[in-house]
Amino acid sequence: MTNAAGVLERNLREAEICLENFDATNQDFALRHVWITCVSAFDLYMTEMVSEVGIRLIDRDPPTLTNNLRQVSVRLESMFGIEEQTPAERLLFFRDSIYSTIQYKSFYRPDGVSEALSYVWTCPAKEKWARVLSGMQETGRYLSRTEQDIRAELTLIGDRRDLIAHSMDTPPGAQRPNPVSREDAASVIEFFRDIVNAIDAETERQL
Prior knowledge:
Shape: globular
Order of helices and strands: HHHHHHHHH
Number of helices: 9
Largest sheet: none
Strand content: under 5%
Oligomer: single chain
């Protein structure tokens, strides 16, 4: 398991606390915060996972550089003196370079996930979502689902998060927010835990 996955799990605990708060108060805002927390946690996971795994690929002998890693931008002035750095210092330099390249990208939608995985996965692009789905199916909860189903669910969760974050969960022209249920909120937490476990396991296999 990557360190990024461990951070994700800690952040998902905050979402579970939202469920506990709802149980104690019956206030809908606690449930809506689940979408905000889970999407943010997933976005952070993808950023940190790419940075973490990227330096593991660079540290190989010889280094394994995907096309996306080859395009990581590095400020010219930061290259001066790199020859004098220790191997550990160089790896930290490369990690920071990867992180600064992707830290403002959004990876919580399907195309963003595909882009992030392109930095560290070496399998053919058309196989990415098949491998994610296969890992999720190991839980027994997605046996009847397709790659498109998983992508669509991730999109719907992202759309709901954006509506909550920017419009108080109120669609244009509506007089009140969308209804929200504890069951739906709990399923969002479960979905992100499952997709991250699948991505993380496949990442380790490809290493």
